[in-house]
Amino acid sequence: MTELRGVGIGLGVAQGPVARMADPLPAPSDAPSTASADDETARAREAVAAVARELEARGAQAGGAAQEVLEAQAMMAEDPALQAEIDARIAAGKTAEWAVHDAFASFRETLAAMGGYLGERAADLDDVAQRVVARIRGVPAPGVPDPGHPFVLVAKDLAPADTALLDLDKVLALVTTEGGPTSHTAILARGKGIVAVVGAAGAAGLADGETVIVDAAAGVVLSAPTAEELEQARARAEARAAAASAPITPGSLADGTAIPLLANLGNPEGAAEAVALGAEGVGLFRTEFLFLSSDRAPTVEQQRAVYTALLEAFPERKVVARVLDAGADKPLAFLNDAPEDNPALGLRGIRALRASEQILRDQLQALAEADAATSADLWVMAPMIATVEETRYFVELAREYGVKTAGVMVEVPSAALLADRVLAAADFASIGTNDLTQYAMAADRLLGSVASFQDPWHPAVLRLIQDVGAAGAALDKPVGICGEAAADPLLAVVLAGLGATSLSMAPAALADVRAALLEHTLDDARRIAEAALAAEDAASARDAARAAATQKKETQP
Ligand code: PEP
Ligand code: MG
Prior knowledge:
Shape: globular
Bound molecules: phosphoenolpyruvate, magnesium ion
Helix content: 40-55%
CATH architecture of the largest domain: Alpha-Beta Barrel
CATH superfamily of the largest domain: Phosphoenolpyruvate-binding domains
């Protein structure tokens, strides 16, 4: 048995024979063209337009997040600056094929140099270029193989166009040798619930047809597994399927301690699915989608309509909306267009809003009006709070607009370390473990090369969470968790043991977390959390928690 490490997406486990994605097309030759420049330009234009239309059509068929990604790719393909680069190469006597290949490559380098979110999008350009070159050559675009039976797809990285239309009856799991946890492959795999491990460089050596186990929960791919390992993986997959079909009950520990299970939503359209999967409310409504696609802030009326639609889906339920979190991985020109060397440490979240206070005021007004018009219980929180002073600023402003429950996200270690004082000034706290981990570990959450640091199991992160939990308990104020950590079932138990009073996650994770909480009492959860806290790194914290959780089950009558 060989263990290939990567980053697991989701918690599933699957097994099956490998089918590898075909290698990319060879680079075209840069010999001079024998056709006229006009002919070459026409060929290039036709191919770019055809590929853009095909991407849009695939997007329309896939819907959801995939559609946004594919439409963005289609727009990139037809970017006038890129077109001008292609034209210039053809004018210099090159073929359409080479001009496309080379112009896309230079565009890719420009994007990659920008780093961050745009840098990660650079890889998407390779796929578009391959599709355009294939079209010019009149050969099929490289894509997902079809061996005629279900398979584990192994690829360098998957283009959004391929991930969007993966046939889930055939693809048992997905393994990529490149790509980090925030690559499009990862985002789309998460959205579709595909068992996936990304960035597993060692998977490049897997051969077609060999059987592997893809264990997303552990972030490993096992090649040449033993019969016993295959059997264990099968049993785990069955247990997960059983958890998914277990009755939907309110989130609770085994002793009846309520831990409400809430949904993270990025737009109101996800509400119906969240309710169907048993979300007891919304723990994080990310409002960025209203702002990111436009070059100016939406009006109060536009915002009110969206917030009202969301709140109406949760009558009498708690809905926690976060005011705009722009900057760093979510850049927004009209809030902050100053170039920053370290945008994650720059003018983002509440800092950016404060610098453009009218945008914050409009948002608070729209939220308060939507709250007044519906029966949901709206809570509003601010992202990236670093100081007690920022907490007071936000809470006072929110109250000015009639927001009844105003709180803060704890994502910056300073806010966790002063949680007693921060919570004294706010109605509640919600811990954003994605950013809290990024800042505690000084590891850019978008950077594949430091992805191993972005692990909320790290005892340093757990200790910060423990401080916030203790402050919440002392002041009798709610402390929710809304980062990805809450979606990891065993970590969810640890978080409850550290004092979390609610957990919010992608709706697809609710069933697993509900089942895990029901296995342990609050005392157990505290003991399991202690075991994790006592470890010296993330991997041993996870192991220690697993051992403590199993030990308890074995000693049960
Ligand atoms: C977080 O940082 O954990 C969080 C929930 O916010 P986002 O992922 O939107 O930054
Ligand atoms: Mg955050």
